[in-house]
Design a protein that fits this description.
Blueprint (H helix, E strand, L loop, with lengths): L1 E2 L2 H15 L3 H5 E2 L2 E8 L2 E6 H6 L13 E6 L5 E3 L4 H4 L6 E4 L1 H8 L4 E2 L3 E4 L8 E6 L4 E7 L3 H5 L6 E8 L2 H4 L6
Main location: nucleus
Function: Required for proper 34S pre-rRNA processing and 60S ribosome subunit assembly.
Family: Belongs to the NIP7 family.
Length: 180
Amino acid sequence: MRPLTDDETKVLFEKLSKYIGENIKLLVDRPDGIYCFRLQNDRVYYVSEKILKLATNISRDKLVSLGTCFGKFTKTQKFRLHITALDFLAPYAKFKVWVKPGAEQSFLYGNHILKSGLGRITENTERYQGVVVYSMADVPLGFGVAAKSTQECRRMDPMAIVVFHQADIGEYVRKEDTLT
């Protein structure tokens, strides 16, 4: 595992800031210790420095993963978030969307959220803003990108797309062979 380069860090933080804004510093400087991001086979892992120091006893070729996988870099050096990052993004999310119970299953199968399935949306959500999707019982289900702003959602057709699907917790079942 190696530290991220400046360009990789910039791309990662730009992606995270779409979802949690300035709260990125809360991910790194936590009350229970200092955490950092490390790269292994194009995947970015979020790990505490304590565990990172202990992992130096394991050779690089034998180390498969360490910490929580936040996502991976594509071949074009774009960063794609994985669903495994949801537990860390949800508490710090700036913009949230709640889905009705009838639309939860559709979202968990990988479909976009329609206006008819929208329960609530955070005020002042802009178009193409990263959002965390919750059930009406405040359980984080995944994340996506707002297709419409809050103002546009109020006067839309019920069958129009409100949130573009990015990732959901159903991936743990659908992609269990490839998810790391």
